[in-house]
């Protein structure tokens, strides 16, 4: 069975948004992304523990930076190991008890099977840290349940993390009934449709169905900004469709609108006043 790195990363950021105690895993991933280098003798990429710690403690303040150690990442994303001077790869909790997590002789490394995904990890690490900064600055206190799910989705969607936004709702939508369920399903269809377009698939029918479902149930969306979003979404889908199956990949997906839970002008004014 092929290891689904993308799915594990989606879970990593979703859990970090929902549970601050799990956010350090994203912080350690960001630190690894900043310090990882090719290993000796063309070995897997990694970073010495002392450099990794320095990078971690240089991150901005937030729940992603606590007095934790790299085990937070090892436990959350099973593609890492600690390698000592003896060359042995250690991954089990029992093997790592009592370890000096600032030892310059030890390295945190990627498994060889995913070593070529380092650029992807770096891209996701940067994006996830930005998402957590925004989420804990403005959305972490969102009302529990359905409104919170919509708010979390919006933060991921606005960061163009379409697969992560889809995965976030993949299980949650089934717990809802009636219009809220339809709204979540519509949001999922928009997110997965955009992910498919990014991956080279003409997913206009998926996007149109998602738009129709959202429009029919807009009154159940937990923010009045949905009307603005739907108006701009309809235009973006129409323009994408005009390119047709042959040329749709030439369309700039940045033209798809953001989904705000509050008026963006109000948000800008609030941040400006806070500074």
Secondary structure elements and pairings:
Elements: H1 5-18, H2 24-35, E1 46-48, H3 49-57, H4 71-76, E2 80-83, E3 89-90, E4 107-110, H5 118-139, H6 146-158, H7 162-172, H8 178-198, H9 204-216, H10 226-247, H11 264-274
Antiparallel strand pairs: 1-4, 2-3, 2-4
Descriptive tags:
single chain, 275 residues, mainly alpha, Hyaluronidase domain-like, 2 domains, four-stranded antiparallel beta sheet, 4 strands, 56% helix, elongated, disordered C terminus
Distance, first to last CA: 50 Å
CATH architecture annotation name of the largest domain: Orthogonal Bundle
Instruction: Please tell me what the overall shape is.
Output: elongated
Number of helices: 11
| CATH class descriptor of the largest domain | Mainly Alpha
Instruction: Spell out the helices and strands N to C.
Output: HHEHHEEEHHHHHHH
User: Which structural class do the helices and strands define?
Assistant: mainly alpha
What CATH calls the topology of the largest domain is: Hyaluronidase domain-like
- Report the C-alpha radius of gyration, rounded: 21 Å
What strand order characterises the main sheet?
1-4-2-3
How many β strands by DSSP? 4
- Tally the structural domains: 2
Overall mean pLDDT stands at: 92
Strand proportion: under 5%
Q: Point out poorly predicted stretches.
A: 269-275
Q: Residue share in helices?
A: 55-70%
